[in-house]
Every structure is written in C-alpha cells, then in structure tokens.
From TrEMBL:
Keywords: Hydrolase. Pfam families: DpnI, DpnI_C. Its EC number is 3.1.21.4. The gene is dpnC. It comes from the Bacteria. InterPro entries: DRP, DRP_C, DRP_PD-(D/E)XK_dom, WH-like_DNA-bd_sf. Residues 184-252 form the Dam-replacing protein HTH domain. It is an enzyme of class 3 (hydrolase). One of its GO terms (molecular function) is type II site-specific deoxyribonuclease activity. This is Type-2 restriction enzyme DpnI. The lineage of its organism: Bacteria, Pseudomonadati, Pseudomonadota, Alphaproteobacteria, Hyphomicrobiales.
Amino acid sequence: MKLGFEESQLSYTSGSQSARAWTEAWVKAWAYCPHCGHAKMSQFPNNSPVADFLCGLCSEEFELKSQKGTFGAKVADGAYKTKCERLAASNNPNLLLMNYDRRTLSVVNLLIVPKHFFIRDIIEERKPLAATARRAGWIGSNILLGKVPESGKIHIVRNGVIRDKELVLAEWQKTLFLRAESLESRGWLLDVMKCVESLGRRDFTLDEVYAFERHLGDLYPGNQNVRPKIRQQLQYLRDRGFVEFVSRGNYRLKS
C-alpha cells in the first residue's frame, strides 16, 4: 500500500471533482476489504444510491467520504429516507472515512465504521432544502460519528502511518457479533460499550458503569430497570469476548 495519489488523476478543473477522482482511484487501487482481507475492491457506477465500493469476494459494500480536514462529530451523508431504509438491509454499506493532504496529494487517515455500528439514533435528519434550491425539498442526513464507540472506528491509516493489516482484521472481527442483534438490541449494547470506553482504561468496575445510570435512563426513558439492563449488557459482552470477568464486580476490556 502506498499513500500518494497518482498524478494522472489531475484531469479535473474543479477541486471537488479532482479530490473525488483521487480518493476513489486510491481506494480502488490500494484499499483492502477489512471483513475478509481481499486485496481489491470494485467500484459501483457513479451516483449509486448509497454505496461506492464492493468486495468481490465477500460482497461487503462500502461508502466513501473524504475531505481535507479531520471529521468532526457529524458527517454529512445522502438522502435521509434512503439511509434509514438501508439500515436493516443485509447490503447496508460500511463507512470509509478518508482525510487527505491536498499539498502532498496523499492519504493521512483512513478509518472504517463497520455497518453493525449503524443504528437509527446515529442518523440525523437534516432540514429540507429551500424552495429556491435546485433540489428543493430534498432531505439529507448526517451520520453522528460522535455517538459511535471507539471500537467502531477502525483505522487502516492513522496520521500517515499504515497499520498492520492483521490488527485491522482482528479489530473488525472483535465486534462482528453485533450483526446478530436487531437494531433495537444494538442500541443498548453500543451505549453501554461507549460508557465503558469513556472510562479511559481497560479495567473497570460494575459500580463505575452504574454511574451512567441516569445518562442511560435519559436515553431509554421507557426502561425502569436500568441497572439490571446494564448487567445484562455486560454479561452479553463478556459472553461474546468483548470484555472479560475478572472478579465479582470487576471487568476488563479485552485487547
């Protein structure tokens, strides 16, 4: 894998068109599928409803978003209705986020958000376009990246350094169990995972997770048994190998 874009891709006068051509050609030439490790991905025709790339071996689909600066808490995306309809579909795409350096024409960061981290709560509806806009009334969406646990942000390239492929594949496999869960069940799991990660260390106690009781209660006002629900989610994450039980009331995030 090399991080530079090809000079031959400088055929557009528009900066945004050039950037799209550079980044898409780079993914097609150098990116691998993090699900199965296949070395090549093929490109969908332009203006496909959601996805941009497809792994020919395992059929995983990918949507690419690229920009010069780092991504913030929100990532602008396509049509809100289409995005919501695809959430529960087997071909809902994984999200590739690329930061590039316009001066050196190279990739700085490339991270992937696996599709099993996508739930309804991280898709935000944008305001309809004004009546004077070319696509008046069109409603777009934002992906609320800030709501995604860190385990759902897998770096292939970080700060200009290519990460070991085996580490990337292992990190992908670590959370694949989420695909077996419904969108509703995933919501609780992801919120508890995010609470655990926010503690900032591998070892943690049940009481420390209980400290998020009010926060989780606000997220799920219909649930009157938040503490038992927290225990249930930790037991599930233990059974799936995401955390391990150390001793009574003590847990550890598995590396």
